[in-house]
Specification:
10 strands, six-stranded antiparallel beta sheet, four-stranded antiparallel beta sheet, Immunoglobulin-like, single chain, 3 helices, 26% helix, alpha+beta, disordered N terminus
Length: 173
Amino acid sequence: MKKYVLFILLMAIPFVGNTQKIHRQYSFYPQEGGAVYFIHPQKVFESGNAEALKKLEYDITYLAGRDSASFTFTYYTHNVMKIDSVKILSDKMGVLFEGKAVTYFVQPKKDYWQQRASLTLPYELLIKIFREDNSFIISLTGKKSISYRMKPKVWKKQSQMISKIFDVVEYNN
């Protein structure tokens, strides 16, 4: 009997370890004009550019029923790098979307700069790019450019989690 219980437990471990607790990754706020969904900050985009110090951190805010969402992000650089536009590129470097960046703030931190900005994206495009097999690339452009992307293993987990949140939005509207 003990062997069977042990066998069942060992078989269940891969399934338990593979599930994601998405309820910790987003918030849902019912509103009169439609529910607001907020995907909590995610630190997953990396850059090979020497000017970039830390991972780009992003969050997404979506008001159900709208055709666009806010993709807000924080990036850290050695020197101030105020941006004016953001490109979303496919893994093959094709431009999927380009839009004007709205800068919220630029502030010094220790010996580097923290900068926060936002981009309004079509909601359907967000759904599409998070369901792709490979990570999209975020290219921040001002006088200089810095590109960020996720590593393949990180992308797999991140895209599954974000896609599942998009499913929650769909099922609740």
